[in-house]
TrEMBL record:
Amine oxidase domain boundaries: 76-332
Source species, domain of life: Eukaryota
Name used for this protein in its record: Flavin-containing amine oxidoreductase-domain containing protein
Pfam families reported in the protein's UniProt record: Amino_oxidase (PF01593)
Organism: Rhizophagus irregularis (strain DAOM 181602 / DAOM 197198 / MUCL 43194) (Arbuscular mycorrhizal fungus)
Length: 372
């Protein structure tokens, strides 16, 4: 079933907050953080006064199973990112971004396959111990760009109790994706056709994502099938063949007699990020933006931190880039770093990364009483 007007149910509830964020993000964030101690489900029950059937229906049709248990702040920001953003990509592939960075750094300064197992504070820097050297390597400053669960496996100095709690507690969800390659882009030729965009189902493969590039081409095409959170757990114990079979089965249920899925199928490849060095996507629980966000972003001596969980924009590459910029600003003591290749002589606007005032906003823990 394709996503339709069901998403408008959510927008009816959160549109004032989306509008406030669009007009002034800092002020808008200060408003939504008041409800950060609420899960989105709790907000729908206690504030919007939805009944359980409506909540469950809208969650199935627009989201992932149990996602509404995450914080109100999380869901509002995610809706803003994915419904109002102006989407852009890098021509000829996103891999050009890290390759471009590698050219600036110099390939001779990049070591792959060197697993870090210990970091150690020293008087004038940081020692790094990794699997490809018997002796530590010393750096002036170190940037730890990895998710909290992976960071926990590394032996670290004894940082502040609040920092250690943030590393333990910040919530990540399982994330699964499989790409299935077919002889033709049959999804564009059935009735109704799908030319870009996505469909949401209540099957194990919750989201079908249709490529927005190459629309109308006659050659082969790739469909992406996604599952997040509780839905992704079903795929964790499956091997590659089982995952492919399950994805094909779900496609057959959706397309029925319109398409011979088996005849169209060429190959498939899946990934479950929970299996990849303890990764996934950041989805904060209630109270985590308020209580842990700023703490997690703060450096510890000469050790700095980056990752999509350290931006307000979770689950996608924007958050990773956003946090990387903040980490560079922190390391260099420059709150307004110029672009590497500025296209104009005008300085870019300063980005305010300090959410400490927002975190102090009075929580709406007894909303009903305050409203009456």
């Amino acid at each position: 079933m394709q996503q339709d007007g069901k998403s408008t149910h959510i927008r009816e509830v959160i549109w004032p907050y989306l509008d406030a964020l669009k007009k002034d993000f800092a002020k808008g964030f200060q408003e939504i953080i008041k409800f950060d101690d609420f899960s989105f489900r709790a907000y729908l029950v206690q504030v919007a006064e939805w009944d359980e059937d409506r909540i469950n229906y809208v969650e199935v049709m627009t989201s992932q199973t149990n996602q509404f248990q995450n914080s109100f702040t999380e869901l509002v920001i995610e809706n803003m990112d994915f419904s109002q953003a102006s989407w852009k990509t890098i021509e000829n592939g996103m891999e050009r971004l890290p390759h471009g960075c590698a050219q600036l750094i110099g390939s001779e300064n990049i070591f792959t396959g060197a697993e870090v197992y210990k970091i150690e504070d020293v008087s004038d820097g940081v020692n790094i111990y990794h699997s490809e050297s018997s002796a530590p390597v010393k750096f002036d400053k170190v940037l730890m760009a990895l998710p909290p669960a992976a960071l926990r496996t590394i032996e670290t100095p004894t940082w502040s109790p609040d920092k250690m709690h943030a590393i333990r507690a910040l919530h990540f969800e399982p994330l699964y994706k499989i790409g299935l390659r077919f002889k033709t882009r049959f999804w564009e030729k059935v009735s109704p056709p799908s030319k870009g965009g996505q469909s949401i189902t209540d099957l194990p493969s919750r989201w079908f994502v249709y490529p927005s590039y190459g629309i109308g081409d006659n050659g082969p095409g790739v469909l992406l099938l996604y599952a997040w959170m509780t839905d992704a757990i079903a795929f964790l114990p499956k091997n590659e063949k089982e995952r492919i079979c399950l994805g094909l089965r779900d496609l057959k249920k959706v397309y029925g007699d319109q398409v011979d899925i088996d005849d169209q199928f060429i190959e498939g490849y899946s990934i479950n990020w929970t299996d990849e060095e303890s990764t996934g996507d950041a989805m904060f629980f209630p109270g985590q933006f308020r209580n842990l966000f700023n703490i997690a972003r703060a450096p510890e001596g000469n050790v700095y931190f980056a990752g999509e969980h350290l931006s307000v924009h979770h689950t996608w590459i924007l958050g990773a880039l956003d946090s990387a910029l903040l980490a560079c600003q922190q390391m260099l003591g420059e709150p307004n770093i110029m672009p590497l290749r500025p296209t104009t002589k005008q300085n870019p606007p300063k980005h305010d990364y300090d959410y400490s005032d927002c975190i102090k906003a009075k929580p709406m823990a007894v909303y009903r009483d305050q409203r009456t």
